[in-house]
Every structure is written in structure tokens, then in C-alpha cells.
Amino acid sequence: MSGDDNPQHIDAEFAASTRFHGVIAHGMWGAALISAVLGTRLPGPGTIYRGQTLRFLLPVRVGDTLTIRVTVIAREPEHRQVRLACVCVNQDGHTVIEGEADVIAPKESIARPRTTLPEVRLSSADGMRRLLDHVRPLGSIRVAVVHPCDELSLSAALDARAAGLIVPVLVAPRAKLEALAAQAGLDLAGIAIEDVEHSHAAAARAAAMAATGEVEALMKGSLHTDELMAAVLATPGLRTRRRLSHCFLMQTPAYPRPFIITDAAINIAPNLEQKADIVRNAIDLAHAIGVALPRVAILAAVETINPNMPATLDAAALCKMADRGQITGALLDGPLAFDNAVSVAAATVKGIVSEVAGRADVLVVPDLESGNMLAKQLEYMGDAASAGIVLGARVPIVLTSRADSRASRIASCAVALMLAHHYRNCPP
User: Fold this and answer.
1) What pLDDT is stored for residue 26 in this prediction?
2) What is the pLDDT of residue 122?
3) 54 closest CA partner among 32, 39, 38, 71
4) pLDDT score of 272
5) Which residues pair with 331 in a beta bridge?
6) Is 35 helix (H, G, I), strand (E, B) or coil?
7) What pLDDT sits at residue 417?
8) Residue 125 confidence (pLDDT)
9) Which of 24, 78, 362, 367 is the most exposed place for a label (fewest CB within 10 A)?
């Protein structure tokens, strides 16, 4: 792109064969990212460069993931002069570029339309640590862990306990639990066990405990999802006026904030009334995690209303319901295609003027199949971290898959903890 075809810069094999192995010209694109941060975020649009010194410490190659950090280290307010320390770190935690920049900060905040060039997005890779730091002051909640009769689900309950998130009550056959713990080397000392005969009985007993307030959340173990959900639906006092729905809370390096995908696990082909409850449940979750006015994107394949595409009609109806006060606590827009929902640049190209487009906090999918594929694509190909939770009952329900990682299970318990505290003040 720059016209520099020096093999020392663009051919890693050639560079490796010479004694000057160090710097490949892709590092200059890393330096350009520093300029992008200064010009768009800190200090922001209107920033004037006075000078910059950079040291290229390690190679930057195609495929690397770079994190750019700028820190104000000196200010001269009278002339708005600012000195910033600039650091570029690769995916292995190695500093590849470092230096300082001297700039003149803008006199006032400047906002202007974004270009349609690829967006610069700042992301954080320490989401799990920040999530646990956020919920730790809340204290733990008592959780019925339903039939955790395999090593993965039992370990997850013990891990969440060790993280200070839950006080588990294991609802399962005692003999089976003790044999599993002995085989896996897990310590059940001090953990309450509700001894039941089988998984059906475990689901029924756990649901009854939730209905009477003995526990503040449910956590799925090794039984089938429909077995647990059937017990929840059949238990008086545990249902609410809302339909049960599932939310994935996700964070990916390609998007600057956590976001919710719903419903990708329970409602197969929801109608308009059911989608309204799905949206309301997602808004509740957004409020519980601290998003005061979430932006809700109702997804479809296109951003225009097409009578032959029911998802676009439902999206329009949901937005009108929000206009009329039938859905509250959020900003809704739709139909929006996925790219318009998450990319300001894509929305600008399409001429979409919206408070939601490009900045969605909640993605409402047309049906379970599309939502499930979207969530798993983001997780397996987009390096997204996820947590899964069911809303619409009196208590949050941690619903994890057998393929979920330990981090995902702990994150789901952390989200359940936040929801349980939210429900103390705002009962569902």
C-alpha cells in the first residue's frame, strides 16, 4: 500500500536470513494506529501533532493483534500542550513500539461524521478479571446446582464457590456425587447436598427451593435443558408474567463494549408477543449490568421493511410498541442488518440515521437458529467470551452448554449474581 517493496520489510523469510531481523515495515502501521487513537479518542478530533519519537523494538507481522495505549504524562494548560506516552503491545504481551507524542489538544469537543474507512476500535482483553472485581463486593448468593453429576458441571460449581460468587447447594443423588468427587479428586467438604433419586427429582426440588426463596438462583448441571425448564414452568410461584428467554452476554475484541444476544437457546421461532418479552428480559439484564439506557437492535437480513420477510415486520412492530410505551427502559431500532447494528461505518454507508445503529448493546435475533449460529460463530471464530443466563422467572437460571469453558461458566455465575441483587430491588 505504501509502495515500499524492500524485501527486508515485507518478506519475513528474507529478513530472517539477514542479520537485520528486527523491524518489519508493518510496524509503521502500528505507529499509524497510535496516530488514530490520538486523533479520534485521546485527545480526540482537532488534535494537532507537534512531534513524536518512537522506538521499534520487535517485528510486527501480518496476523498480529496490536493493543495501543496512550497515557497523558504532562500538560501545559495555557497553550493546551499535552505529552503522551505511547505503547503498542502484541498478542503475546510483548511491547513492539514505544515512545512519546507531543500534541496540542483541541479547545473544545469536536464531533463530525465518521468516514467509511475501517473503524478504529479500542478493546480490552481483561473482561473476566474486571467482571469478577465488579461483582465481588456484592457477596455470594445461595444457588441450587441441579444434578451436577459429571466432572465438568461439578467442577464449575466448586470453581464459582472458590471465586466467591455462589454458595452452592448440590441437588442430586448423594452417592453418585460422592463417587464422582472421589474419582475426580474434588472436595465436597462443607457443601450442602439435597439428596434426590434422579435428575427429574433434582429439577423439581431445585425449582421448589427457588420458589420458596431458599435459593436466589438455579444452575444447570448435567441434565437436559428441557428437563430443567419443564420443572421451572411447572412450579407455582416461580413463573412470572414474562416468557422465559435466554441471553448470551458476550464480549469480543472486535467490539468496544459487552453486548447481549437473545434468544439463542430457548424460544425456537418466537412470535411478536414472545419477542416483546424477549426484548423486555434483555433490557432487564442490561439494567442489571449497569447499562441505564441500552440500545436494542432488532436484527433481520435487511434494514428495510419487506412484507415477504416476517422478521422485518416484527422489528417494525416492536419499535412502534416502544414508541407507545409498551416496551420501556431502552432505545429500540429495527429492522437492522447485523453490520448496521454493530458498525457505524456500515450504517453511514447505508444512510441510516439512528441512535442504535453501530452502537447496539442488545442484538435481538429473528429465531433460535440464527441466534445460536451467531453466538457460536463469535465465540469460536471471533474470540468472544460469553456468559449464558435465562430470565423471565423469579430467579436467574445459569444455563451452560457441555462445551462451555470454565471461564464461561464462572462468568455466567457472576451475571446471575448481579441479576439476583437487581431482583432484590426490582422483582421480576
Assistant:
1) 59
2) 41
3) 32
4) 96
5) 295
6) helix
7) 93
8) 47
9) 78
Cα gap 312→307, rounded to integer Å: 8
Neighbouring-strand partners of residue 250: 259, 386
318 close to 275: Cβ distance less than 8 angstroms:
yes
Q: Which helix (H) or strand (E) holds 219?
A: strand 217-220
User: What is the per-residue burial (b if ≥16 Cβ within 10 Å, else e) of 114-148?
Assistant: eeeeebbeeeeeebbeebbeebeeeebbbbbbbbb
**Beta bridge mates, 74:** 83
**Pick from 180, 182, 132: which is nearest to 159 by CA?**
132
How many other C-beta atoms can be found within 10 angstroms of the C-beta atom of residue 278?
A: 28
Residue type (1 letter), 92:
D
pLDDT, position 265: 92
Strand pairing report for 362-364 and 295-299: parallel
The whole-number pLDDT of residue 113 equals 61
Residue 394, classed as helix, strand or coil, is coil
Q: How far apart are CA 384 and CA 151, in angstroms?
A: 25
Question: For the chain (length 428 residues), average pLDDT per consecutive 10?
Answer: 51 47 58 84 87 88 83 92 93 91 87 53 56 85 94 91 93 94 92 94 96 95 92 92 94 88 95 97 93 95 94 97 96 95 90 92 97 93 90 92 81 92 87
Say which residue the cell 463494549 belongs to.
257
Q: Please, what sign has the CA dihedral across residues 99, 104, 110, 114?
A: negative
Q: Is 141 helix (H, G, I), strand (E, B) or coil?
A: strand
- Contact in structure between 219 and 410 (CB atoms under 8 Å): no
pTM over the 0.85 mark: no
Instruction: Transcribe 158-184 into DSSP letters.
Output: HHHHHTTSEEEEEEE-HHHHHHHHHHH
Q: Could you tell me if 103 and 47 are in contact, meaning their C-beta atoms sit under 8 angstroms apart?
A: yes
Place of cell 461505518: 345
Angstrom distance (rounded) from CA 236 to CA 261 = 29
Q: Phi/psi of residue 73, each to 5°?
A: -115, -15
Cis-peptide, bond into residue 43, ω within 30° of zero: yes
C-alpha distances in angstroms, 352 versus 110, 113, 307, 345, 356? 21, 12, 20, 10, 10
Instruction: List Cα–Cα distances, 109 to 86, 104, 121, in angstroms.
Output: 22, 13, 19
Counts of helices then strands in the chain (DSSP H, E):
14, 15
Count how many residues are written for the chain: 428
> 95: how many CB neighbours lie within 10 A of its CB?
13
